[in-house]
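Aggregate trends can hide what the representation actually does to any particular protein. For completeness, the protein is quoted in full, as a sequence line and a line of structure tokens.
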Amino acid sequence: MEVFADYLAHIDDPQHQAQTEEVLAWVTEKFTNLKQRIAWNQPMFTDHGTFIIGFSVSKHHLAVAPERAGIDHFSDEIKRAGYDHTKLLIRFPWDRPVDFSLLEKIIVFNITDKADCSTFWRK
């Protein structure tokens, strides 16, 4: 989590900071094989040099970015969980608990789907 310390320190709202830290710590502990990094001013996780998932803080939500393939694959489940999404990100509102089981499915999907990927982003 040291990689994310400066990012977390710059989140002004204490609740947003705590929730973001909780999510990043959960991913770090659950997926010990993923590498933590800051790129494009946001925390993200990679596997063998390929992007798996990224996060960013917004006024109303924690944005979760699993690439379009992850969102497309889980679009119905994301909606059933009560989350809004675009083609490239899912919005986890600050006033609701994070659905860690959904987040886990998305991360596992990306790890599996990109197992043979040799580029940072999907082509």
Remarks:
- Strands lie at 35-39, 42-47, 50-57, 61-65, 84-85, 90-93.
- The mean pLDDT is 97.
- The first helix runs from residue 5 to 9.
- DSSP finds four helices and six strands in the chain.
